[in-house]
Design brief:
Length: 193
């Protein structure tokens, strides 16, 4: 027995099971027909590009013995090869899409894990903040108790209004000093005549 005979029989069993499903069977037939249409288009291009082949086909048509190209062994070999290419391409795309989906699911899981860890860290931080509340409030109370021990209250200094001639003495805002100009200079501006 061949060493890979077991794998070959498993593949044949899977293919037979696959062909029994009507939907999959229709899908396979559509791919086979698609490969045939691709070969027909390629044949038309070949005939247009090759003048000798086109002349040979015209001569055969004139003699009335034009063989049907799709009945030849050459066509069937090319068709079989094209079907393989089409099915391989479809399978490759399916696998690539599966990998993309898998990668996207893993990325989403990683993002969710990061978000969950961030939420848990915030919860722990908030819990620790709440647990230290008494400590913070107690330290503020201690500070407030210490501030009461000071003698008297702190008040702004009294304004001096005794010397009205000196502009450097503190006065209430809006107090007008007789004979004083802003900046302590006399107004020397004269209007021109």
């Amino acid at each position: 027995p061949h060493p890979r005979a077991k794998d070959a029989f498993a593949a044949l069993g899977k293919a037979a099971e696959w062909l029994q499903d009507e939907l999959r069977c229709k899908e396979l037939h559509s791919h086979v027909n698609h490969a045939r249409e691709m070969l027909r288009k390629e044949r038309k291009k070949e005939v247009k590009a090759d003048a000798a082949l086109a002349a040979q086909i015209r001569l055969m048509a004139a003699n009335g013995c034009l063989p049907d190209y799709e009945q030849t062994d050459n066509f069937h070999d090319r068709w079989r090869q094209k079907v393989r290419e089409v099915l391989t391409d479809i399978e490759w795309r399916r696998r690539k899409m599966t990998l993309r989906i898998k990668d996207e699911e893993e990325r989403v899981k990683e993002e969710e894990a990061v978000e969950k860890s961030e939420r848990n860290a915030k919860k722990r931080e908030h819990k620790a903040w709440e647990e230290r509340r008494d400590e913070r409030v107690g330290s503020w109370r201690d500070f407030a108790k210490g501030a009461k021990k000071l003698k008297g209250e702190t008040r702004p200094p009294k304004l001096k209004e005794e010397d009205s001639e000196k502009s450097y003495v503190q006065r209430r805002a809006g107090t007008i000093i007789p004979g004083a100009t802003p900046g302590g200079k006399k107004n020397t501006f004269k209007r021109g005549v």
